[in-house]
Amino acid sequence: MIPNATPGLLRLCEVPAGGIAEIVQLLLPPSALEYVMQLGFIPDAQVEVVRKLPFRGPTVYCVQGTEIAIRHEVAERIQVRMRVPQVAGAQ
After folding, report:
1. pLDDT (tens digit, 9 = 90+) per residue, 67-89?
2. Is the separation of the CB atoms in 77 and 26 below 8 Å?
3. CA 39 to each of CA 8, 77, 85: distance values in angstroms, whole numbers, following the listed order
4. Region 5-17: what's the mean pLDDT?
5. What does pTM read for this prediction?
6. How distant, in Å, are the alpha carbons of 40, 73, 86 from that of 89?
7. Who has the most CB within 10 Å: 7, 57, 88, 91?
């Protein structure tokens, strides 16, 4: 269990390939927090899961138009809310 985790949210590592989520909370130590925020992993940012590697390997995410791979151990400390993709022409 991640300390200070908010019930009802997913961890970024739980979002399936092709899924889109919005970052809600970062539960990382200060050094890692600064690093991932510089990469664009900030609250309210939209993240798409591009590809997942097996055996808890790094996952490639698209954040602010850039593909970035981060380790599973980092992704499990980023809390997100799933986003429903917008369908063209839907109201």
Report:
1. 999 999 999 999 999 987 655 55
2. yes
3. 26, 15, 23
4. 89
5. 0.85
6. 29, 39, 9
7. 57
